[in-house]
Amino acid sequence: MKILNLKLLLFLVVSSFLFTSCNNSDNIDLSEPISVDETNTFVEVDNISDEVNNVIDDFFAEESLGARSEDTNPGGILSLGCMTRTVVIEGTTKIITLDFGDGCELPNGAVLSGKIILIYAVNTDVKSLTITYTFENFHFNELSVEGENIVVRVRENENKNPQSTLTVNIKITWPDGEFASRRGTKVREWIEGYDTRTFGDNVFLITGNWTTTFKNGTILSATIIEPLRREMACRFIVSGLVELQKNNRNGSLNFGDGRCDNKAIFTNEEGEEFEITLKRKIF
Protein backbone atom coordinates (compact mmCIF):
# COMPACT_ATOMS: atom_id res chain seq x y z
CA MET A 1 0.00 0.00 0.00
CA LYS A 2 2.85 2.40 0.88
CA ILE A 3 4.52 1.66 -2.47
CA LEU A 4 1.24 2.28 -4.29
CA ASN A 5 0.73 5.59 -2.47
CA LEU A 6 4.29 6.63 -3.28
CA LYS A 7 3.78 5.89 -6.97
CA LEU A 8 0.51 7.82 -6.93
CA LEU A 9 2.24 10.77 -5.28
CA LEU A 10 5.03 10.76 -7.86
CA PHE A 11 2.47 10.62 -10.67
CA LEU A 12 0.61 13.62 -9.27
CA VAL A 13 3.84 15.63 -8.85
CA VAL A 14 5.02 14.92 -12.41
CA SER A 15 1.55 15.61 -13.82
CA SER A 16 1.41 18.90 -11.93
CA PHE A 17 4.87 19.88 -13.23
CA LEU A 18 3.96 19.08 -16.83
CA PHE A 19 0.66 20.96 -16.52
CA THR A 20 2.41 24.01 -15.10
CA SER A 21 5.11 23.87 -17.79
CA CYS A 22 2.50 23.76 -20.53
CA ASN A 23 0.65 26.69 -19.00
CA ASN A 24 3.88 28.73 -18.71
CA SER A 25 4.69 27.98 -22.36
CA ASP A 26 1.20 29.06 -23.39
CA ASN A 27 1.71 32.34 -21.52
CA ILE A 28 4.87 33.33 -23.47
CA ASP A 29 4.07 36.44 -25.48
CA LEU A 30 5.43 35.83 -28.97
CA SER A 31 3.83 39.01 -30.28
CA GLU A 32 6.08 41.47 -28.44
CA PRO A 33 7.33 43.88 -31.14
CA ILE A 34 10.94 44.74 -31.89
CA SER A 35 11.85 47.73 -29.72
CA VAL A 36 13.88 50.81 -30.61
CA ASP A 37 16.39 49.96 -27.86
CA GLU A 38 16.89 46.46 -29.27
CA THR A 39 17.39 47.93 -32.73
CA ASN A 40 19.95 50.43 -31.46
CA THR A 41 21.88 47.73 -29.60
CA PHE A 42 21.72 45.51 -32.69
CA VAL A 43 23.28 48.30 -34.77
CA GLU A 44 25.93 49.02 -32.15
CA VAL A 45 27.03 45.38 -32.05
CA ASP A 46 27.12 45.43 -35.85
CA ASN A 47 29.30 48.56 -35.87
CA ILE A 48 31.83 47.01 -33.50
CA SER A 49 31.95 43.73 -35.41
CA ASP A 50 32.44 45.56 -38.72
CA GLU A 51 35.14 47.88 -37.43
CA VAL A 52 37.16 44.99 -36.01
CA ASN A 53 36.84 43.29 -39.41
CA ASN A 54 37.99 46.52 -41.06
CA VAL A 55 41.13 46.43 -38.92
CA ILE A 56 41.84 42.86 -40.04
CA ASP A 57 41.20 43.60 -43.73
CA ASP A 58 43.27 46.78 -43.66
CA PHE A 59 46.13 44.98 -41.92
CA PHE A 60 46.33 42.27 -44.59
CA ALA A 61 45.96 44.83 -47.38
CA GLU A 62 48.95 46.71 -46.00
CA GLU A 63 50.86 43.44 -45.61
CA SER A 64 50.28 42.61 -49.28
CA LEU A 65 51.31 46.12 -50.35
CA GLY A 66 54.49 45.83 -48.30
CA ALA A 67 53.75 48.94 -46.23
CA ARG A 68 55.84 49.12 -43.11
CA SER A 69 56.08 52.74 -42.01
CA GLU A 70 54.09 55.91 -41.51
CA ASP A 71 56.07 57.56 -44.32
CA THR A 72 54.97 54.99 -46.89
CA ASN A 73 51.51 54.41 -45.44
CA PRO A 74 50.10 57.46 -43.65
CA GLY A 75 46.90 56.72 -41.77
CA GLY A 76 47.12 52.93 -42.11
CA ILE A 77 46.95 50.29 -39.39
CA LEU A 78 50.66 49.46 -39.52
CA SER A 79 51.56 53.14 -39.13
CA LEU A 80 49.75 53.49 -35.80
CA GLY A 81 52.41 54.37 -33.28
CA CYS A 82 50.25 53.06 -30.44
CA MET A 83 50.03 49.52 -31.87
CA THR A 84 52.75 46.89 -31.82
CA ARG A 85 52.88 43.87 -34.11
CA THR A 86 54.63 40.62 -33.31
CA VAL A 87 55.02 37.57 -35.54
CA VAL A 88 55.72 33.98 -34.51
CA ILE A 89 56.10 31.16 -37.05
CA GLU A 90 55.60 27.60 -35.82
CA GLY A 91 56.14 25.17 -38.67
CA THR A 92 53.60 26.11 -41.33
CA THR A 93 51.53 28.23 -38.95
CA LYS A 94 51.89 31.99 -38.61
CA ILE A 95 50.70 33.75 -35.46
CA ILE A 96 50.39 37.53 -35.53
CA THR A 97 49.52 39.55 -32.44
CA LEU A 98 48.20 43.09 -32.84
CA ASP A 99 48.67 44.77 -29.46
CA PHE A 100 46.81 48.04 -28.96
CA GLY A 101 48.08 48.47 -25.42
CA ASP A 102 45.97 50.44 -22.95
CA GLY A 103 44.38 52.52 -25.68
CA CYS A 104 45.05 53.13 -29.37
CA GLU A 105 42.95 55.53 -31.45
CA LEU A 106 42.14 54.59 -35.04
CA PRO A 107 41.93 57.24 -37.78
CA ASN A 108 38.11 57.21 -37.48
CA GLY A 109 38.20 57.99 -33.73
CA ALA A 110 37.49 54.51 -32.34
CA VAL A 111 39.73 53.56 -29.40
CA LEU A 112 40.98 49.97 -29.18
CA SER A 113 42.84 48.29 -26.32
CA GLY A 114 44.12 44.78 -25.68
CA LYS A 115 45.12 42.26 -28.34
CA ILE A 116 43.81 40.64 -31.51
CA ILE A 117 45.56 37.32 -32.26
CA LEU A 118 45.51 36.02 -35.85
CA ILE A 119 46.46 32.45 -36.82
CA TYR A 120 46.77 31.13 -40.37
CA ALA A 121 48.80 28.78 -42.54
CA VAL A 122 51.93 30.13 -44.19
CA ASN A 123 51.38 29.86 -47.94
CA THR A 124 51.86 32.97 -50.04
CA ASP A 125 50.94 31.28 -53.32
CA VAL A 126 47.29 30.58 -52.60
CA LYS A 127 44.54 32.85 -53.84
CA SER A 128 42.60 32.52 -50.58
CA LEU A 129 43.58 32.63 -46.94
CA THR A 130 41.71 31.20 -43.94
CA ILE A 131 42.36 33.14 -40.75
CA THR A 132 41.21 32.43 -37.21
CA TYR A 133 41.33 35.39 -34.88
CA THR A 134 40.64 35.67 -31.18
CA PHE A 135 40.76 38.42 -28.57
CA GLU A 136 42.80 38.86 -25.42
CA ASN A 137 41.49 41.45 -22.95
CA PHE A 138 40.25 43.36 -26.00
CA HIS A 139 38.02 46.45 -25.73
CA PHE A 140 36.36 48.67 -28.28
CA ASN A 141 35.56 52.07 -26.73
CA GLU A 142 35.45 50.43 -23.26
CA LEU A 143 33.17 47.59 -24.46
CA SER A 144 34.62 44.10 -23.96
CA VAL A 145 34.86 41.90 -27.06
CA GLU A 146 35.28 38.10 -26.79
CA GLY A 147 35.02 35.13 -29.12
CA GLU A 148 36.61 33.45 -32.11
CA ASN A 149 35.96 34.44 -35.71
CA ILE A 150 36.99 32.65 -38.88
CA VAL A 151 37.47 34.62 -42.08
CA VAL A 152 38.23 33.34 -45.57
CA ARG A 153 39.86 36.09 -47.64
CA VAL A 154 40.15 35.90 -51.43
CA ARG A 155 42.29 38.29 -53.44
CA GLU A 156 39.70 38.58 -56.20
CA ASN A 157 36.03 37.63 -56.41
CA GLU A 158 33.99 37.52 -59.61
CA ASN A 159 34.05 41.35 -59.63
CA LYS A 160 37.86 41.39 -59.35
CA ASN A 161 37.58 42.80 -55.80
CA PRO A 162 39.02 41.45 -52.53
CA GLN A 163 36.37 39.66 -50.47
CA SER A 164 36.09 38.22 -46.98
CA THR A 165 33.58 35.60 -45.84
CA LEU A 166 33.33 35.82 -42.07
CA THR A 167 31.90 33.28 -39.65
CA VAL A 168 31.00 35.44 -36.66
CA ASN A 169 31.02 34.21 -33.08
CA ILE A 170 31.48 37.10 -30.66
CA LYS A 171 30.15 38.42 -27.39
CA ILE A 172 30.13 42.13 -26.54
CA THR A 173 29.72 43.27 -22.94
CA TRP A 174 29.00 46.80 -21.74
CA PRO A 175 30.53 48.14 -18.50
CA ASP A 176 27.12 47.92 -16.79
CA GLY A 177 27.00 44.12 -17.38
CA GLU A 178 24.61 44.12 -20.34
CA PHE A 179 25.78 41.91 -23.20
CA ALA A 180 24.86 40.67 -26.64
CA SER A 181 26.14 37.65 -28.57
CA ARG A 182 26.39 37.50 -32.35
CA ARG A 183 26.39 34.33 -34.51
CA GLY A 184 26.19 34.14 -38.26
CA THR A 185 27.87 34.77 -41.61
CA LYS A 186 28.89 37.96 -43.37
CA VAL A 187 30.36 38.48 -46.81
CA ARG A 188 32.33 41.73 -47.16
CA GLU A 189 33.31 42.85 -50.66
CA TRP A 190 36.01 45.54 -50.67
CA ILE A 191 34.92 47.74 -53.58
CA GLU A 192 37.06 50.87 -53.12
CA GLY A 193 40.37 51.80 -51.55
CA TYR A 194 42.03 48.37 -51.55
CA ASP A 195 44.71 49.54 -54.01
CA THR A 196 45.74 52.56 -51.92
CA ARG A 197 47.45 52.94 -48.58
CA THR A 198 44.88 55.24 -47.01
CA PHE A 199 42.52 53.94 -44.30
CA GLY A 200 39.82 56.55 -44.92
CA ASP A 201 39.02 55.71 -48.54
CA ASN A 202 38.06 52.09 -47.90
CA VAL A 203 34.50 51.15 -48.91
CA PHE A 204 32.79 47.78 -48.35
CA LEU A 205 29.53 46.14 -49.44
CA ILE A 206 28.20 43.68 -46.86
CA THR A 207 25.71 40.82 -47.23
CA GLY A 208 24.76 37.90 -44.99
CA ASN A 209 22.55 36.80 -42.12
CA TRP A 210 23.02 36.34 -38.38
CA THR A 211 21.34 36.31 -34.98
CA THR A 212 21.88 38.56 -31.98
CA THR A 213 21.05 37.17 -28.53
CA PHE A 214 20.53 39.67 -25.71
CA LYS A 215 21.14 39.17 -21.99
CA ASN A 216 17.43 38.57 -21.32
CA GLY A 217 17.34 35.73 -23.88
CA THR A 218 15.67 37.69 -26.68
CA ILE A 219 16.89 36.60 -30.12
CA LEU A 220 16.86 39.08 -33.01
CA SER A 221 17.53 37.59 -36.46
CA ALA A 222 18.78 39.66 -39.36
CA THR A 223 19.03 39.13 -43.11
CA ILE A 224 20.53 41.73 -45.44
CA ILE A 225 18.07 42.39 -48.28
CA GLU A 226 20.03 45.20 -49.95
CA PRO A 227 23.83 45.25 -49.42
CA LEU A 228 25.04 47.49 -46.61
CA ARG A 229 27.53 50.11 -47.73
CA ARG A 230 30.23 50.86 -45.17
CA GLU A 231 32.58 53.78 -45.85
CA MET A 232 35.51 54.18 -43.49
CA ALA A 233 35.29 57.96 -43.93
CA CYS A 234 31.92 57.76 -42.12
CA ARG A 235 31.24 56.40 -38.64
CA PHE A 236 28.01 54.71 -39.73
CA ILE A 237 26.58 52.52 -42.48
CA VAL A 238 25.39 54.91 -45.21
CA SER A 239 22.90 52.71 -47.12
CA GLY A 240 21.34 49.26 -47.29
CA LEU A 241 18.30 47.38 -46.01
CA VAL A 242 18.13 44.72 -43.27
CA GLU A 243 15.12 42.52 -42.49
CA LEU A 244 14.68 41.83 -38.78
CA GLN A 245 12.71 39.08 -37.05
CA LYS A 246 11.93 38.56 -33.37
CA ASN A 247 9.71 35.55 -32.58
CA ASN A 248 6.78 36.02 -34.96
CA ARG A 249 7.24 39.79 -35.40
CA ASN A 250 9.06 41.35 -38.34
CA GLY A 251 10.54 44.69 -39.21
CA SER A 252 13.12 46.34 -41.44
CA LEU A 253 15.96 48.79 -40.98
CA ASN A 254 16.82 51.20 -43.80
CA PHE A 255 20.20 52.93 -43.52
CA GLY A 256 19.51 55.65 -46.05
CA ASP A 257 20.53 56.86 -49.49
CA GLY A 258 24.29 57.06 -49.15
CA ARG A 259 24.66 60.23 -47.09
CA CYS A 260 26.88 60.08 -44.01
CA ASP A 261 24.62 60.59 -41.03
CA ASN A 262 23.58 58.79 -37.84
CA LYS A 263 20.00 58.17 -38.92
CA ALA A 264 18.16 55.04 -40.02
CA ILE A 265 14.48 54.24 -40.46
CA PHE A 266 12.94 51.28 -38.65
CA THR A 267 9.63 50.07 -40.12
CA ASN A 268 7.44 47.59 -38.26
CA GLU A 269 5.14 45.05 -39.89
CA GLU A 270 2.21 47.45 -39.62
CA GLY A 271 4.08 49.90 -41.84
CA GLU A 272 4.77 52.40 -39.05
CA GLU A 273 8.12 54.19 -39.40
CA PHE A 274 10.43 55.27 -36.59
CA GLU A 275 13.63 57.26 -36.95
CA ILE A 276 16.53 55.55 -35.22
CA THR A 277 19.49 57.59 -34.01
CA LEU A 278 22.53 55.44 -34.53
CA LYS A 279 24.91 55.91 -31.65
CA ARG A 280 27.76 54.27 -29.85
CA LYS A 281 27.71 54.05 -26.10
CA ILE A 282 30.88 55.63 -24.76
CA PHE A 283 31.45 55.00 -21.06
Protein model, in words:
- It is a single chain.
- The protein is of the alpha+beta class and 283 residues long.
- 19% of the residues lie in helices and 47% in strands.
- Strands 1, 2, 3, 4, 5, 6, 7, 8, 9, 10, 11, 12, 13 and 14 form a 14-stranded antiparallel sheet that branches.
- Strand 7 (163-173) and strand 8 (179-192) form a beta hairpin.
- The longest helix is centred in the first third of the chain and has 30 residues, at 36-65.
- The termini are far apart.
Which characteristics define this entry?
283 residues; 14-stranded antiparallel beta sheet; 2 helices; 14 strands; disordered N terminus
A few lines on this structure:
With 283 residues, the protein is of the alpha+beta class.
* Unreliable residue stretches: 1-28, 67-74
Biggest sheet layout? 14 strands, antiparallel
The first-to-last residue Cα distance is: 67 Å
Overall structural domain count = 1
Number of strands: 14
Task: Please state the structural category.
Answer: alpha+beta
Series of H and E elements: HHEEEEEEEEEEEEEE
| Gross geometry | globular
Spell out the blueprint of helices and strands:
Elements: H1 2-26, H2 36-65, E1 84-90, E2 93-99, E3 104-105, E4 111-121, E5 128-140, E6 143-154, E7 163-173, E8 179-192, E9 203-214, E10 219-231, E11 237-246, E12 249-257, E13 263-268, E14 273-277
Antiparallel strand pairs: 1-2, 2-4, 3-4, 4-5, 5-6, 6-7, 7-8, 8-9, 9-10, 10-11, 11-12, 12-13, 13-14
